[in-house]
């Protein structure tokens, strides 16, 4: 499976703005819940926030990749949130984050999250990819871009 195969169309949203990093995380978590791949949403939420306490998952270039690896996850999943106006996220480059890729990985497949992180990073480093995603008008177009770009990536599973 490739990174685009982990994304359910219900797990993607384009928002104009959010008021805080926490609100952005909660929006991404609500999208993730729609995947049906989380057995215990509260345990998964705790894991995502715990990981975020260790260090911001804002990787720079207005992108964040929060993630949770735990037994509360039934199968690998991805949710994507685009915040048009950006939100302060404590990113490495101190720029507001606009694209949030939230990953969910079962504890039994914990090495998979590194492959997922790498695949998303590779997808975003292609010339103009991130900017193209940040400028979409709606969920449909964002999903199309992720499927096109993600389909070009190597197999994860």
Characterization of this structure:
- With 157 residues, the protein is α/β, with parallel strands linked by helices.
- A hairpin with a 2-residue loop joins strand 2 (58-60) and strand 3.
- It has helices at residues 21-33, 41-54, 112-124, 129-134, 139-150, and strands at 7-15, 58-60, 63-64, 67-70, 77-87, 97-106.
- Strands 1, 2, 3, 4, 5 and 6 form a 6-stranded mixed beta sheet that branches.
- The model has no long low-confidence stretch (mean pLDDT 90).
- The N and C termini lie close together (5 Å).
- The radius of gyration is 14 Å and the shape is globular.
List keywords for this structure.
157 residues, alpha/beta, 6-stranded mixed β-sheet
Q: N-to-C SSE series?
A: EHHEEEEEHHH
Structure class: alpha/beta
How many beta strands in the DSSP annotation? 6
* Contiguous runs where pLDDT drops below 50 for at least 5 residues: none
Mean of pLDDT: 90
**Could you give the distance between the termini?**
5 Å
Number of DSSP helices? Answer: 5
* Biggest β-sheet strands, sense, barrel: 6 strands, mixed
What is Rg?
A: 14 Å
Globally, the shape reads globular
Oligomeric state as shown: single chain
Approximate helicity band: 25-40%
Strand content: 15-25%
């Amino acid at each position: 499976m490739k990174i685009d195969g982990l994304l359910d169309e219900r797990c993607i949203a384009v928002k104009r703005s959010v008021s805080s990093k926490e609100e952005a995380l909660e929006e991404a978590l609500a999208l993730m819940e729609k995947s049906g791949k989380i057995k215990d949403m509260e345990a998964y939420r705790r894991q995502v926030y715990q990981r975020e306490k260790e260090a911001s998952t804002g990787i720079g270039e207005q992108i964040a990749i929060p993630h949770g690896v735990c037994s509360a996850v039934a199968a690998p999943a991805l949710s994507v949130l685009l915040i048009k106006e950006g939100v302060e996220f404590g990113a490495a480059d101190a720029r507001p984050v606009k694209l949030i890729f939230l990953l969910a990985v079962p504890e039994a497949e914990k090495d998979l999250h590194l492959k997922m992180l790498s695949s998303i990073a590779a997808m975003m480093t292609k010339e103009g990819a991130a900017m193209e995603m940040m400028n979409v008008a709606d969920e449909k177009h964002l999903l199309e871009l992720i499927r096109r770009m993600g389909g070009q990536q190597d197999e994860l599973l």
